[in-house]
Amino acid sequence: MSNIAALDDVLTPEEAAVKLKRPVKHLLTAARRGEIPAKKIGRSWVFKMSELEKWFADWRPNTFDPNQKAKEILESISGKKRGGMHGIGG
């Protein structure tokens, strides 16, 4: 594929938002955070359809559970305190 033909694959944020059925603002936020493949050229963001397709093909549902993460953090903190006290007390 020539470089010129590859440009046909490039989308503006508005075009990419239509393809992904998401608001442009959400798409740009995800691009800034590095959550979605994009490139910044000057002040503008561009998206490559083939890269979005690859990214979406590898998509996995978000399984983040804030309650589970909080529990893990609390267990980690309480475990460190107990561990530290055992070393000091003896």
Any chance you could write out the topology, listing elements then pairs?
Elements: H1 3-6, E1 10-11, H2 13-20, H3 24-33, E2 39-41, E3 44-48, H4 49-57, H5 66-89
Antiparallel strand pairs: 1-3, 2-3
Structural description of this entry:
- By secondary structure, the protein is mostly helical.
- The protein has one domain (3-89).
- 61% of the residues lie in helices and 11% in strands.
- It has five helices and three strands, in the order H-E-H-H-E-E-H-H.
- The protein has helices at residues 3-6, 13-20, 24-33, 49-57, 66-89, and strands at 10-11, 39-41, 44-48.
- The chain has a three-stranded antiparallel β-sheet with strand order 1-3-2.
- The termini are far apart.
- The model has no long low-confidence stretch (mean pLDDT 82).
Notable traits:
90 residues, mainly alpha, 3-stranded antiparallel β-sheet
Largest sheet: 3 strands, antiparallel
- Tally of distinct domains: 1
Describe the global form.
elongated
Q: Which secondary-structure class do the elements indicate?
A: mainly alpha
Instruction: Give the CA-CA distance, first to last residue.
Output: 70 Å
Physical arrangement of strands within the biggest beta sheet: 1-3-2
Mean pLDDT: 82
Fraction in beta strands: 5-15%
Number of strands: 3
**What radius of gyration results from the CA coordinates?**
22 Å
Number of helices: 5
- The secondary-structure element order is HEHHEEHH
The stretches of 5 or more residues where confidence is low (pLDDT under 50) are: none
Helix content: 55-70%
